[in-house]
């Protein structure tokens, strides 16, 4: 077993709608947040390109190329405009 | 112009100063000292003003009247000192081409003068002790500050000083929709002294489930004016200022400048990013919220530089429609209500000097799962909005090309004119169309400005449109608004119908 890890993912707004879930736990081989998003995008057909998304780990915005660590709490945040 | 005088007011002399052959209407109002008030016989009256502030505030009121109504001039004189029964206490005169504008502007000015000027009056009663009353806050004076606001003033974070800071506060609400309905009601209720309401939209039946300021009788009416009236009726001691044209790059800076705190209750990325950029540049506090179905995001950008700048998060404004809106993805009214209420709470904290978590965090709140998550503010060292040296944004892009879209009738031949579709945007009571047709000897389309919706205007890309109003002010505004929405085939006739008359009649 090389680099599989389990992470928790929180979805907001359009992601929640497209995933049909608010949060989930996922086993992944992705090494970075960028790879994780690409994996989820193809698995669930997310409509937003990664440049249009912010990602946070725990309570801090993170860099897309940051290493994905075991047990990370990942949050995907799309822009929202309703009012 | 406005003046304060301790000499008696002579209406005849004042009327004389408003002679203008262009004006078909002069409307005047005289406020006089009457012999009774609240059942008490009054024998005389004394007025005292805080001069510097009265002059400044009245200049603002007269300017608002000039902007809102199509008038040539407005004068106002207010007395100070001792007045006897029947003496003129305040005089307002307005001249305009037509009576409607003259009447409306005159009414507006006297109402605002009474409501906003720091002038105190002392009625001398025949049978009892007299006392000074602040005219501006007479309605509020019926109920003391303590009666009105005791339940919030008892909070240790607020107290009397907090209440006074709310009263002195000037807050601009951008968007009087779902978030705006909720935020506005709480801000006005809390006693925020001056609230500007900016919205270019009209009430649609599909708005009612979440925009709780409006009801079925309001469908089709302009939101800004309606919201402003409703708040005035509910809280007569609050000053509301109506800005009925939507905010865009060309007017944003001018609008934001007039206020201390801006509340972003808009529903589109363009406005949200524009406000974020302008408020960073002018160092104004901005409270933003965006909602999606059952959830939303709350953030702020403070005058001291703390908080989340949208440009630090997203270098480029997301294109409209990249994620859903209330219109196409649906939204629960109570969700926008909750976020509008959170915004009002943040404005109150900002005005009262109470520290906010939003200086360090943005908040994601999901009302479906009732989960609240705070995420630390993200800074971009190279942000074009935060770094003063990089602030290259031009919020008045229309100024540079002013002469490209503003046409001078003196420089136009009849064949030049034939290249445009001429559109008279004056209202039906201004007798539009006729005079232009006879002077220009060409066809003129009539499209009263009150019926124009810049968001959904049906203009042909094949044509060049030349908009004409009485003096060129309304047509300028319309063209700026249309151009900011991508129409480059629209023009304004400088000086309006009057310039045409000068060319062909004089």
CATH overall fold name of chain A: Ubiquitin-like (UB roll)
The CATH homologous superfamily of chain A is called: Beta-grasp domain
- Counted by DSSP, the helix tally of chain A is 2
**Low-confidence runs of chain A (pLDDT<50, min 5 residues)?**
none
CATH class descriptor of the largest domain in chain B: Alpha Beta
The gross shape of chain A turns out to be: globular
The span between the termini of chain A is 48 Å
Question: What is the percent of helical residues of chain A?
Answer: 10-25%
Counted up, domains of chain A total 1
**Radius of gyration of chain A, taken over Cα atoms and rounded to an integer in Å:** 12 Å
Rg of Cα set of chain B: 25 Å
Number of domains of chain B: 3
CATH class of chain A: Alpha Beta
Percent range for helical residues of chain B? 25-40%
Residue-averaged pLDDT of chain B: 87
Span between N and C termini of chain B? 29 Å
Sheet with most strands: strand arrangement of chain A: 2-1-5-3-4
| Mean pLDDT across all amino acids of chain A | 92
Topology:
The complex is a heterodimer of chains A (83) and B (506).
Chain A: E1 5-11, H1 14-19, E2 23-28, H2 33-44, E3 54-57, E4 60-61, E5 73-77
Parallel strand pairs in A: 1-5
Antiparallel strand pairs in A: 1-2, 3-4, 3-5
Chain B: E1 2-5, H1 11-16, E2 25-32, E3 36-37, E4 40-49, H2 51-68, E5 71-79, E6 81-84, E7 88-96, H3 99-116, E8 119-125, E9 132-134, H4 138-142, H5 145-153, H6 159-168, E10 170-174, H7 178-190, E11 194-198, H8 223-234, E12 239-243, H9 249-257, E13 261-264, H10 269-282, E14 285-292, E15 295-301, H11 310-313, H12 326-329, H13 333-352, E16 361-366, E17 371-376, H14 397-400, H15 402-405, E18 406-407, H16 414-418, E19 421-424, H17 434-440, E20 445-446, E21 465-468, H18 473-484, E22 490-493, H19 496-504
Parallel strand pairs in B: 1-5, 10-11, 10-13, 11-12, 13-14, 18-22, 19-20, 19-21, 21-22
Antiparallel strand pairs in B: 2-7, 3-4, 4-6, 4-8, 5-7, 8-9, 14-15, 15-16, 16-17
Helix pairs in contact in B: 2-3, 7-13, 9-10, 17-19
């Amino acid at each position: 077993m090389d680099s599989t890890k389990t992470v928790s993912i929180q979805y907001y707004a359009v992601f929640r709608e497209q995933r049909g879930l608010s949060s989930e736990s996922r086993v992944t081989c992705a090494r970075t947040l960028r790879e994780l998003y690409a994996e989820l995008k193809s698995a669930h057909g997310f409509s937003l390109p990664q440049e249009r998304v912010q990602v946070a780990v725990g309570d801090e915005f993170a860099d897309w190329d940051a290493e994905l660590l075991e047990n990370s709490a990942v949050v995907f945040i799309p822009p929202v405009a309703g009012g | 112009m406005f003046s304060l005088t301790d000499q008696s007011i002579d209406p005849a002399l004042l009327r004389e100063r408003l002679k203008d052959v262009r004006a078909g209407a002069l409307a005047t109002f005289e406020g006089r000292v009457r012999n009774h008030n609240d059942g008490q016989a009054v024998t005389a009256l004394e007025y005292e003003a805080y001069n510097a502030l009265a002059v400044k505030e009245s200049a603002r009121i007269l300017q608002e009247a000039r902007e809102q109504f199509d008038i040539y001039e407005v004068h106002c004189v207010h007395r100070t000192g001792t007045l006897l029964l029947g003496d003129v206490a305040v005089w307002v005169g307005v001249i305009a081409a037509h009576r409607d504008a003259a009447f409306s502007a005159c009414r507006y000015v006297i109402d605002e003068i009474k409501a906003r000027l720091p002038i105190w009056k002392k009625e001398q009663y025949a049978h009892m002790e007299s006392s000074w009353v602040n005219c501006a806050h007479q309605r509020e004076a019926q109920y003391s500050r303590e009666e009105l606001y005791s339940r919030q003033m008892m909070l240790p974070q607020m107290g009397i000083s907090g209440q006074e800071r709310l009263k002195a506060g000037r807050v601009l609400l951008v968007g009087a929709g779902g978030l705006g309905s909720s935020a506005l009601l709480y801000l006005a209720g809390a006693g925020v002294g001056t609230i500007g309401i900016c919205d270019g939209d009209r009430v649609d039946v599909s708005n009612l489930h979440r925009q709780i300021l409006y009801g079925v009788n309001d469908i089709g009416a302009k939101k800004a004016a309606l919201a402003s009236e409703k708040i005035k009726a509910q809280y007569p001691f609050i000053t509301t200022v109506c800005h009925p044209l939507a905010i865009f790059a060309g007017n944003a800076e001018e609008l934001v400048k007039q206020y201390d705190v801006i509340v972003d209750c808009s529903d589109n990325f363009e406005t949200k990013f524009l406000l974020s950029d302008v408020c960073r540049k002018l160092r104004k506090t901005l409270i933003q919220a965006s909602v999606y179905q059952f959830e939303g995001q709350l953030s702020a950008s403070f005058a001291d530089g703390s908080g989340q700048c949208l440009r630090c998060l997203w270098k480029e404004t997301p294109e409209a429609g990249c994620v859903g809106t209330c219109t196409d993805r649906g939204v629960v009214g109570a969700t926008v209500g909750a976020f509008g209420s959170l915004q009002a709470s943040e404005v109150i904290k900002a005005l009262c000097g109470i520290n906010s978590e939003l200086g360090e965090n943005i908040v994601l709140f999901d009302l479906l799962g009732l989960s609240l998550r705070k995420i630390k503010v993200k800074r971009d060292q190279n942000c074009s909005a935060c770094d003063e040296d990089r602030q290259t944004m031009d919020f008045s892009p229309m100024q540079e090309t002013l002469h490209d879209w503003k046409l001078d009738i003196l420089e136009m031949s009849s064949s030049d004119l034939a290249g445009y579709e001429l559109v008279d945007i004056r209202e039906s009571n201004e007798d539009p169309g006729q005079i232009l047709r006879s002077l220009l000897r060409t066809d003129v389309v009539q499209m009263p400005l009150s019926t124009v919706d810049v968001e959904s205007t049906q203009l042909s890309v094949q044509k060049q449109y030349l908009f004409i109003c009485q003096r060129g002010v309304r047509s300028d505004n319309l063209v700026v608004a249309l151009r900011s929405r991508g129409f480059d085939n629209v023009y304004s006739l400088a000086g309006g119908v009057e310039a045409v008359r000068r060319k062909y009649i004089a």
